Amino acid sequence: MRQNPSNAAYLIPRSVSRLQALTLAGLVVAAVYTADVRAQESDPVFHFSGFGTLGIAHSSEDNADFLAHDLQKKGAGAHESWSMEVDSKIGLQFSADLTSKFSAVLQVVSEQQYDGTFRPQIEWANLKYDITSDLSVRVGRVVLGSFLTSDYRKVGYSTPWVRPPVEVYGLIPLSHSDGIDLSYHAIFGEVNSTLHAAFGKASARHPAGGKVESEGGAWHFSNTVEYGPATMRLAYTHSHLTAEPYEELFDGYRTFADQLATAPFGLGNSAAAQANAIAHKYNTEDKRFTFFSIGAMYDPGKWFVMAEWGQTDSDSLLGKRQAWYATGGYRLGAFTPYVTYAEAKLKSNQSDPGVDVPPILGPVAVGTGAFLDSQLNSIEGLAGAPIQKTISFGLRWDVTKNTALKVQYDYSRVDDGSPGTLNYIQPGFKTGDDFEVFSATFDFVF
To answer: Is 319 left (phi over 0), alpha (psi -120 to 50) or beta?
Structure first.
């Protein structure tokens, strides 16, 4: 089931936001309004549909977890050798054409959240008004069209893989915005172009504690161009991002700087300046964050190829990261074998020399500086960036019209000093080790 891009939006995995509550209230008001104008227009049309994935995944690395994205709590590996929690989900969608110009959509999804639960969450909730046949506006929870499959990537049946390549799609786990969205559609001969512009707040809870959110709102622009079997999408996002899970570390550097500054005869002044400089350079509170991506797909029916490239850039610990993938498949009746190659790179520094604490200040000061520096350069700090190359082989079997069975094998080569895309790192974990993932899913729509 391919979702209608004009009605796509993504969730904040927590309680209902104020704007979302207003949107839901607006649905009720819209229904009442619609009842009053039935004399002028036809009755509203309501739709109900759903989708789901039942999946299982196994990772060869038992000292870390393989996850579909960083906002999941647990996965295959350290928690469980075989996990059904990485890819499994179910969603229900309700939509209504309230008038000829006014429509609404609501989607509820149950999938693994930041705390490991499968509590149902409101995934889409927006009201849409067609200003003209080509120009529309939506208010509420709207999708950030960062990737080729953003509008339907949770619907496993609609994508060729078991899951979108984690190297690229992990760049932006925040794929929603609570705010306003404008869409303009234009036709130039045989070329269809759809331009989206959105402004709103994106936020999600993080398994390490706290939230990751765009401070003051995020601007997002995307343009999708279709020509026959070819599709291309460009996307750009600009925001100021706060990642609360890392702020405790930088508060520690600031406190340490204050302590160093009290050392007699100014012996700690240089080290204090270094500690403050580190906190300023790498802290993740209200820091500039940009994302740019380009993707293309060609699908004439018998076969398909697609590729995407993305880059994030931030004045913080997150630094500059790039990733890309290319995939292709060939349809042999109900069977579609496919292969994917993906890479994730870090374009900024992977380590920092830290604070040079003079030994004369004593072992406590030296030890404190070494501890903070180790945290900065640890798996949760600069070295936490995924640097890896993955080749995947998969097979999709369309069992019936609305169901598909997929199996996929991933082999990832990880650079030294990086955990790759793995999480929940355990003491026995060795950076730079390769790992394998075997996955199987049963996808369905109704």
So the answer is: left
